[in-house]
User: Fold Carbohydrate esterase family 4 protein from Piloderma croceum.
Amino acid sequence: MFFHFEATLRATPANATGIDSTPLAQVITKCTIPNTAALTFDDGPYQRDISKALTDVGGKGTFFWNGDNYGCIYEDEDVERVKFAYGQGHMVASHTWAHKDLTTLSAEDINSEMSRVEDALDRIIGVRPAFTRPPYGNYNDLVRKIAHSRGQKLVTWDFDSGDSTGSTPAQSKKAYDKLVKKHPSTVLALNHETYETTAHDVLPYAIKLLVGKGYKLVTLAECLDMDPYQSVSNPQNRDGSWTC
Assistant:
C-alpha cells in the first residue's frame, strides 16, 4: 500500500462522463468516536483466523474485499470465508474488483470495478456496502464523483502497519507501539489479510496492546456512527452469474 493522494483527472473532460455536476463522495481518513480503534484488513477474503482473533476478545473488524485479486470471490472456499466473517458480526466493505489503481481508469471502468464487487457481496451475503477503500489509497475527483453516484464513501487510514510494504512482523509491532505511545483519540488501522504473519503474529499483539490501552475494537461504521450498508437483504442462491 502507498499513502493516498489526490491524483489529477484524466484528459477526458468531466462532462464526457456524464457526471460533471455530481457531488464528491466523502473521504474518511479517521474515526470520530473517542476511544475506538477500527482494525481494517484489505485484499481478502483470505484469513478466518483474523475474524476469530477479534471475536475471541469481543472485538469487531472491517474487511475490505476484492472480487478477483488473489483469487475469485465466488470460489466455494472464499464464499464460506465471506459468510463466516459477516456471520461473526464483522463489517464487510469494497476494495474494488481487481485492485486496479482507479485514478488510471475511465469512468466506465471505475464503475465496473465498484459494481462487480458490490454485486458479489449482495449475492453472497445480501448486503450492499456503503464504503469503498480505493486500492493503494488513490483517488481523484472522478473516482469521488462515481463513488458518490453509487452511494459510497471512500475510506483511507491514519495508521499503516506496513505489512504490505516490506515491514517485518517485528517492525509492524514496533509501529503499533509507537502509535499507542502517542495515544490518539481514535485509530483507523490498515492491515492486510494476505499475510499469515499479520493474522498470526502482528494482530494478536496489536489486539492486546490496543485493548490494554483502553481502546474499544469496533467496525469502521461503529467508529464513525454511520450505517455500514446501503441495503441488507437475503443472500441469493448460486447461479451462472457467480463467476469471475
